[in-house]
Design a protein that fits this description.
- The protein is about 75% helix and about 0% strand.
- The longest helix has about 55 residues, at about 455-510.
- Helix 8 (about 130-140) packs across helix 10, helix 28 (about 610-625) packs antiparallel against helix 29 and helix 29 (about 640-650) packs antiparallel against helix 30.
- The protein is elongated.
- It has helices spanning about 1-15, 20-35, 40-55, 60-70, 75-80, 85-90, 95-115, 130-140, 140-145, 150-175, 185-190, 195-230, 240-260, 265-275, 300, 310-320, 335-360, 365-380, 385-395, 395-405, 410-430, 435-450, 455-510, 515-530, 535-540, 545-560, 575-605, 610-625, 640-650, 655-670, 675-695, 700-705, 710-755.
- It is built from 33 helices and no strands.
- The protein is mainly alpha-helical.
Length: about 750
């Protein structure tokens, strides 16, 4: 039986399981029976075992494994034909892993048995086949795997090529051989296969350990930025908003990646440190190049509104021919939430860059990218001047990289590099930037001069951030100069340009008119029901009636107490969401202030123990409190305003009971449900509408008494809304006319059905 077992092992090793094998088994058993005098019972049991063995393993012949691999495994043709994202998913599939593992381990086993491989080149039979599958990404998508091609990366890349080449040639030989068995594969193909696999696994490990250390640090930076960004979202941010969903998706993805790379203990330690505000983001003891982790939070950052498009710039120039990009470079910097979120990611990037330089050996890849961006920006702005050549000489990235990797690029070289770049920037930038640049450089330069060995990475990255900021400032200046040149063209043709772009979005399906239609319908039905606009005029296409509907719809957006968001804004006003939000806050602030002033005036005037002079003095102080308020960006702080009014009242001889009653009345009237609040809101909205129509506020004496101190603010805000409405109407007039006409006919038909007898 022992001899038979050895024979069977040999047969498996050499892939020899022909159909006649069962007869050979029977013959062997007959010979054993005669030699060992086995009885019939033992003989039948042996035959049963042999047949079960054949049935179980007949489909595990090398030929079957190879065919399975070619049908469902990662062949060269398949890997080349799919994208990197699809390849990653494909290599993680259970079927791919199973067929690759079975085929690779069989080829490795047979190669060892054939050539009696030395122990130094032996690979454990249970090695992780996913490491082998990673070779397909390394060979066919190296730019997605490696951040840069350093020594370790190049060695791993070459080893992966050798492994896949040898493996695929062996499989092709088995597949094309007449007997489809391993014995027909030439010895020179299999002789070094175990050694090639062993070398690949060793080089993968040498690359993976430092790469994972670097990635761990970068993932922690990205997680901190994402957590901070999520905290910056307003408390009333919907759970299903694009930003919140993207932030949480990225957080879960990075937490899973951190757990996969560094383990459960590292993730638990990060959570504990983050809750305590003491996250350790220092680099590992050693690190070299590897997969980029700099864009770990890139998906969440991309969810933020980006730079202005040409269409948005044209819209801004239509509203304000003198429009200029701010220091944010055209981002939605007017929105403080987006600004704080962007700052979180910005800080995370530079902190991560500092840690790259603190690694041993340092990782220079992203530092070189920043230098390249600075150099290229200056070259673009300098044009064909001599400074374009000067910056190319100062920032010789090939030389810098070579010297840095050899450890020859010291701190003195870094300071000379920063100084050379700064000298070119000062010659290329606009003269008005000179004082600003010198003032900021004094602080940055002093920090570099005083930096010791431990502080030098931070000082160098701060200097890079300063230089990149100066380049971006020069870009903004150049862009604003171009805006001044195209402003006259936009004035003449901007309406047609914006209208055409909007129609393109409707045609390709990226925009619909669903929210705009609902907005117009609601306003039209309300205005007709209130008899503010006649249905007959709408049905006859009367221009003034159509214009009244559009003005009323714009006013309804401003008066809506619910904050306007992009996902609820009419599609025709998407470029004006932020402006309308500011007008909303201004409207609510003026209404609340006017209501509180009316309530305070009534309460103070009704006080019994105050003489007329004292009443006049207190009312003057209260009015000055409101007229001195110039804040137009935030809602009124009711509690703080009540406290200011009561301090003015306390200086008078008004009774304490009257003071308490006045404080309660002031707090109550600030609520939107208060009757006085609602009345003043309607009157102020009517005032806005009259200013939009005639350019002048109403002369109603009662209104002037109630809202007199606020009339200049009302006039200013209504004028801003009128300018916005006029541009919006000019661009989308045809769209509004069609929608208003359609909804007027729908309303007429509905009225006809209601009036018809049942």
């Amino acid at each position: 039986i022992s001899k038979m077992s050895k024979s069977n092992s040999a047969l498996v090793s050499h892939d020899c399981l022909p159909d006649s094998y069962s007869k050979r088994v029977s013959d062997s058993v007959d010979r054993l029976s005669s030699n060992l005098l086995l009885d019939g019972f033992c003989r039948n049991k042996i035959v049963s075992i042999q047949r079960i063995w054949i049935k179980k393993f007949r489909y595990l012949r090398t030929w079957n494994l190879v065919e399975n691999y070619f049908s469902t495994g990662p062949t060269e043709e398949k890997v080349k034909s799919i994208s990197f994202e699809v390849l990653v998913i494909f290599l993680r599939e259970k079927t791919t892993i199973a067929v690759s593992q079975a085929c690779l381990r069989r080829i490795h086993l047979l190669s060892k048995l054939r050539h009696r491989v030395s122990k130094e080149a032996l690979v454990p039979e249970n090695f992780n086949v996913r490491i082998f599958l990673a070779a397909f990404m390394i060979v066919y998508r190296p730019t997605h795997v490696f951040e840069s091609m350093g020594t370790l990366e190049q060695a791993l890349y070459e080893s992966a090529i050798s492994l896949l080449t040898a493996f695929q040639r062996i499989l092709q030989c088995i597949r094309s051989a007449s007997m489809h068995c391993f014995q027909e594969v030439p010895n020179d193909l299999t002789q070094y296969f175990p050694a090639i696999l062993h070398q690949y696994l060793q080089r993968f490990k040498a690359w993976k350990v430092p790469d994972e250390a670097k990635l761990t640090c970068r993932i922690k930076h990205a997680l901190v930025a994402l957590y901070q960004a999520e905290e910056h979202l307003p408390p009333d941010e919907p759970e299903d908003s694009k930003l919140k969903v993207e932030f949480r998706t990225q957080i879960e993805r990075l937490r899973s990646k951190l757990q996969q790379i560094a383990g459960d203990d590292a993730l638990r330690e990060f959570d504990e440190q983050f809750r305590a505000g003491q996250v350790n983001l220092s680099g590992a003891d050693s690190c070299a190049g590897g997969t980029s982790g700099g864009g770990a939070g890139g998906g969440a950052y991309a969810a933020l509104p980006g730079r202005m498009t040409n269409e948005q710039l044209a819209h801004e120039l239509l509203l304000d021919p003198g429009f200029q990009l701010d220091e944010g470079g055209g981002y939605c910097s007017d929105n403080p939430v987006f600004h704080r979120i962007r700052q979180s990611f910005h800080q995370a990037f530079w902190d991560s860059l500092v840690d790259d330089l603190k690694l041993a050996p340092p990782c220079y890849v992203r530092v070189l990218r920043v230098l390249a961006e600075i150099r290229d920006g200056i070259v673009d702005l300098a044009g064909s001047s001599e400074w374009s050549g000067r910056i190319g000489e100062a920032v010789d990235l090939g030389f810098i990289k070579e010297q840095a990797e050899l450890g020859l690029y010291g701190w003195d070289c870094c300071m000379r590099l920063i100084g050379s770049i700064l000298a070119v920037i000062q010659r290329v930038q606009a003269p008005r930037r000179d004082d600003e640049t010198r003032a900021r450089w004094r602080q940055v330069g002093q920090a570099m001069q005083e930096a010791t060995g431990e502080d030098q990475p931070r000082a160098f990255c701060t200097a890079l951030e300063f230089l990149l900021d100066r380049v971006n400032a020069m870009r903004i200046d150049a862009a604003n100069a171009r805006l001044r040149l195209i402003a006259p063209v936009i004035k003449d043709h901007g309406v047609d340009y914006e209208r055409g772009k909007f129609q393109d979005k409707l045609n390709d399906g990226s925009l619909t008119l669903e929210r705009t239609r609902a907005w117009i319908r609601e306003c039209l039905w309300h205005e007709v029901a209130a008899k503010a606009v006649g249905l007959a005029g709408l049905l006859s296409g009367q221009a003034s009636a159509y214009a009244s509907i559009h003005s009323a719809a714009m006013l309804a957006l401003v008066a809506d107490p619910a904050p306007l968001r992009a996902d609820r804004c009419p599609e025709t006003l998407l470029f004006d969401v932020h402006r309308l939000s500011l007008l909303q806050r201004e409207f609510q602030r003026v209404v609340t202030s006017a209501t509180m002033l009316v309530t305070a005036t009534h309460g103070i005037s009704a006080a019994r123990n105050l003489n007329p002079a004292e009443i006049s003095s207190v009312l003057t102080s209260v009015k000055e409190l409101f007229t001195s308020d110039t804040n137009t960006d935030t809602e009124l702080d009711v509690a703080q305003t009540v406290a200011h009014i009561m301090r003015a009242v306390e200086r008078s001889s008004i009774a304490s009971e009257s003071r308490s009653a006045l404080a309660r009345a002031l707090t109550q009237c600030a609520a939107p449900s208060d009757a006085v609040h609602q009345l003043l809101a309607q009157r102020i909205l009517t005032c806005w509408g009259q200013i939009m129509t005639t350019g002048q506020p109403p002369g109603d004496a009662q209104f002037v008494r109630a809202a007199g101190p606020f009339v200049p603010r009302i006039h200013q805000a209504a004028t801003r809304l009128m300018a916005l409405a006029n541009i919006n109407k000019a661009v989308h007039q045809a769209t509004y006319n069609a929608l208003i006409g359609e909804e007027a006919r729908n309303l007429s038909a509905e009225a006809g059905r209601t009036a018809a007898p049942s």
